[in-house]
């Protein structure tokens, strides 16, 4: 029996993780859950899974949760609050594996708290590695923690390279669906509404990552994530558009052969793989009906129209605090787009300006990263205010 903590249990990844856990009650037990502010869902999860400890980041939600919890007959967890409370859940001694599935930079400190206890981390929160890849991988080594990718492309690469020498890898190819605006040019994207950008063709995900998929920033963040997870230079990390999202990524070996990992687009696959690693669970994802597949197609990304992808490659090459700045600026720009304050096409324009203003620092410790993150948020807001 493995004891599981889920950071971000009320989100898309959190809910899929609980789906997997509920199908295998003899293998997994939930010991800790955390949420932002969706306490109506959190209460249902508490009733169903009886965690020992829960934490929420939002103060009003915390007070509401505390007042409602005494009415629950079946469960009575300890309730914690804020980043510190979430980090305590992440570090709880009973946990065997922590699924890191909070969205955005707020996931960084709780993930580090889990790493420092030497646990197995199922990492969905790609922002952790984008912001602080060198620091995080050094902490993983120092504390004997294990980082298992939950992001579908990285889970695919992890599965494909298993048992192969690193020197035999020529490059890895991250597949991208292309998002809802595949094939469109900049001019055609100028009046895109948040509602249309939120219509991902293949995956049902949280709002922030769905917009990142539409701009291709998601793939850019994943290039940076892959660099740190697999310790590969940027030149060995490629991106290919694959609109069907059946091939989750590909490894090209030096002998000219390839290994790819395939399944229907369903995050329960990579989640279950991380939860049960190194074993596999039965019947997690519905089988592919091969005869009915209409085709698997691949094309080069349009780096000009979807320039967020180019910006992410530039940030990775620039190094130091630049990836953290890219990430923070993107978070602010995406929120502004969802709030109707800036246009879809402004997202990369604003991020690029912020990157141009940034004086790179060596990413030696977490405070330098947090400072860069803070600086980039402020600068992005200034540029948005100035231009609107
Ligand atoms: N969804 C997917 O299929 C995939 C997601 N990922 C990555 O996984 C992560 C989660 O994505 P996803 O599940 O889609 O996101 P969601 O927006 O669906 O869920 C986010 C979770 O984070 C919580 N949260 C939000 N803000 C805070 C905060 N300030 N403090 C603490 N918790 C907070 C939310 O709580 P509440 O709702 O209660 O406020 C919710 O539980 C992201 O990093 C994403 O890039 C990677 C691959 C695939
Ligand atoms: C499911 C998953 O891992 C997402 O990160 C997904 O890859 C998003 O789709 P895109 O390929 O459109 O970015
Ligand atoms: Mn992904």
TrEMBL record:
Organism the protein comes from: Dissulfurispira thermophila
Swiss-Prot/TrEMBL GO biological process terms: isopentenyl diphosphate biosynthetic process, methylerythritol 4-phosphate pathway involved in terpenoid biosynthetic process
Any Pfam family: DXP_redisom_C
Gene3D superfamilies noted in UniProt: 1.10.1740.10, NAD(P)-binding Rossmann-like Domain
Cofactor: Mg(2+); Mn(2+)
Catalytic activity, reaction form: 2-C-methyl-D-erythritol 4-phosphate + NADP(+) = 1-deoxy-D-xylulose 5-phosphate + NADPH + H(+)
Top-level EC class: oxidoreductase
Annotated Mn(2+) binding sites: 151, 153, 222
Lineage, opening ranks: Bacteria, Pseudomonadati, Nitrospirota, Thermodesulfovibrionia, Thermodesulfovibrionales
Gene label: dxr
HAMAP family linked to this entry: DXP_reductoisom
Pathway the protein contributes to: Isoprenoid biosynthesis; isopentenyl diphosphate biosynthesis via DXP pathway; isopentenyl diphosphate from 1-deoxy-D-xylulose 5-phosphate: step 1/6
Domain of life: Bacteria
Binding site for 1-deoxy-D-xylulose 5-phosphate: 126, 152-153, 177, 200, 213, 218-219, 222
Keywords (A to Z) from UniProt: Isomerase, Isoprene biosynthesis, Magnesium, Manganese, Metal-binding, NADP, Oxidoreductase
Domain 1-deoxy-D-xylulose 5-phosphate reductoisomerase C-terminal: 147-230
Name of protein: 1-deoxy-D-xylulose 5-phosphate reductoisomerase
Role: Catalyzes the NADPH-dependent rearrangement and reduction of 1-deoxy-D-xylulose-5-phosphate (DXP) to 2-C-methyl-D-erythritol 4-phosphate (MEP).
Domain DXP reductoisomerase C-terminal: residue ranges: 262-378
Residues noted as binding NADPH in the record, renumbered to the chain: 10-13, 36-38, 125, 127, 206
GO-annotated molecular function: 1-deoxy-D-xylulose-5-phosphate reductoisomerase activity; isomerase activity; manganese ion binding; NADPH binding
């Amino acid at each position: 029996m493995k004891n599981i903590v889920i950071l971000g249990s009320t989100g898309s990844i959190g809910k899929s993780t609980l789906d997997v856990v509920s199908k295998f009650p003899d293998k997994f037990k939930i010991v800790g859950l955390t949420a932002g502010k969706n306490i109506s869902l959190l209460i249902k999860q508490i009733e169903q899974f009886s965690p020992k400890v829960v934490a929420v980041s939002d103060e009003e939600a915390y007070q509401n949760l505390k007042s409602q919890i005494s009415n629950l007959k079946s469960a009575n967890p300890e309730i914690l609050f804020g980043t510190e409370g979430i980090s305590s859940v992440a570090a709880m001694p009973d946990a065997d594996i922590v699924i890191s599935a909070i969205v955005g930079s707020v996931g960084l400190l709780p993930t580090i708290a889990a790493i420092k206890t030497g646990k197995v981390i199922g990492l969905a929160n790609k922002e952790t590695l984008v912001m602080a890849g060198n620091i995080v991988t050094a902490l993983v080594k120092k504390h004997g923690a294990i980082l298992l990718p939950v992001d579908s492309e990285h889970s695919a690469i992890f599965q494909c390279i298993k048992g192969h020498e690193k020197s035999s890898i020529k490059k890895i190819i991250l597949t991208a669906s292309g998002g809802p605006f595949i094939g469109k040019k900049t001019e055609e994207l100028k009046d895109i509404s948040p509602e249309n950008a939120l219509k991902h063709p293949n995956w049902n995900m949280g709002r922030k990552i769905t917009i990142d998929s539409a701009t291709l920033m998601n793939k850019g963040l994943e290039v940076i994530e892959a660099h740190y997870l697999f310790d590969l230079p940027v030149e060995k990390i490629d991106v290919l558009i694959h609109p069907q999202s059946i091939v989750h990524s590909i490894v090209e070996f030096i002998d000219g052969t390839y290994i790819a990992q395939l399944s229907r687009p369903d995050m329960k696959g990579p989640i279950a793989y991380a939860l049960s690693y190194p074993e596999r669970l039965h019947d997690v994802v519905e089988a592919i009906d091969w005869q009915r597949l209409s085709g698997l197609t691949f094309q080069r990304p349009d780096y000009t129209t979807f320039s967020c992808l180019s910006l992410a490659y530039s940030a990775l090459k620039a190094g130091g605090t630049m990836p953290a700045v890219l990430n923070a600026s993107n978070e602010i720009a995406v929120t502004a787009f969802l709030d109707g304050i800036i246009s879809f096409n402004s997202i990369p324009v604003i991020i690029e300006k912020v990157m141009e203003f940034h004086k790179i620092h060596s990413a030696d410790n977490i405070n330098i990263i947090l400072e860069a993150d803070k600086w980039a948020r402020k600068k992005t807001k200034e540029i948005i205010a100035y231009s609107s």
